Amino acid sequence: MRIKTFSKKQGQILRFIEQPEITLICDGAVRSGKTVSMILAYMIWAMSHFDRTNFAICGKTVRSAERNILMPLQSIEGLPYCLEYKVSKSILTVRCGKIENYFYLFGGKDESSYMLIQGLTLAGVLFDEVALMPRSFVDQAIARTLTYSNRKLWFNCNPEGPQHWFNQEWVLKAKERGARHLHFLMDDNPAMTPEGIEEAKKEFSGVFYDRYILGLWVLAEGRIYDMFDKTKHVVAAPPGPCTQYYISMDYGTQNPTAMLLWGKCGGVWYMLREYYYSGRDQKAQKTDEQYYAELVKLAGDPPIRAVIVDPSAASMIATIRQHGQFMVRPADNAVLDGIRVTATALSSGKIKICECCANALEELPGYVWDDKAAQRGEDKPLKINDHAMDALRYFSMEVFGRPNPGPITIGG
Length: 412
Ligand SMILES: Nc1ncnc2c1ncn2[C@@H]1O[C@H](COP(=O)(O)OP(=O)(O)OP(=O)(O)O)[C@@H](O)[C@H]1O
Ligand SMILES: [Mg+2]
Fold this sequence. Notes:
- The chain is an alpha/beta fold and 412 residues long.
- The chain has 2 domains: 8-204, Rossmann fold (3-Layer(aba) Sandwich), CATH 3.40.50; 230-399, 2-Layer Sandwich (Nucleotidyltransferase, domain 5).
- It contains 17 helices and 15 strands.
- Helix 1 (8-15) packs parallel to helix 2 (34-49), helix 2 (34-49) crosses helix 3 and helix 11 (288-299) crosses helix 12.
- The structure holds adenosine-5'-triphosphate (ATP) and magnesium ion.
């Protein structure tokens, strides 16, 4: 990576190296140039003030720290440092002349990181995507720095809900804590062209737009798919023949089972038909074999590329496999990623729903964020009548989701 210039905002991160404050907080939009300028400033600060000293670089997991922080750092052209990374120990040794320092990579969500960080004394910690880490890990890492009077803490993240612990404890208390707070937007990244920014804006909608594009700590409240509009999204039938087909399935033994048949026509995916059964309402449970018979009926004649099934439905997955007719894939059940990807597909008109899919159409407007969870700082859908919604998510993740989705990969 060639860095020719820094934006004014990124320059403020670099100036933090010589400023007296201990803490820097950078929050805001995705791809706004937070991580790359922060890791660079962190390295320059560490190398110019310390020798043979330990530091921490924390990501959501060690792997994401390697991918999102270490790899971009290694690719920056013209750095005056020699970087040597030991994968087995997750330690990066940085040398410049006779000076050398050690950067331990940790994952806030990795169990093993808790144990390892407890044994260290650190002069600084960089938390990349801190809002994805548990507070206990962050507190533990900070405690390891207390013996250094010239320590520095570097935080960056995309916003979550306003009640999120990091917003409450650090962003809102930045002044009180004497921390520097910088808010980033995509304009603050010199590598983002106006076209690139426009493209990025199309990737998000609803609460995700407010958080990842506008960089605001806003509540996920009300309808989840508030972009759903009957006049735009509901059709009698696709305008022509479909070329590819999928079925997605949410499976319940006590709870209802929902199956959705999908067909692609002219770049748009249509929810063509649905199957919905509630054993509780009908006062009769169905066996996996009976559900399989319904799946065959729903599929009809066209070739189905895959049946995407609720990953916890091991017995159903096994039953479908035994019959050998359909390719089965356990769904990616990352709930927030699935909602984000579905919201984007609805906004950009890539998903439409045929009017015969009555249960899905009934669930859509009633699929709402859980207010109580939001007050605790967690984003979750309210778990009522969400079976077709789960099947919708599974489909979206399969067709529109990217590998390793999440805020970190959004930033690439
Ligand atoms: N000054 C710069 N010069 C050249 N490229 C840059 C510069 N700043 C950022 N970039 C590039 O822009 C992309 C996004 O930057 P970065 O990953 O730092 O953003 P981010 O704010 O951390 O995003 P996210 O919130 O999604 O993690 C990266 O590919 C990075 O290399
Ligand atoms: Mg980043």
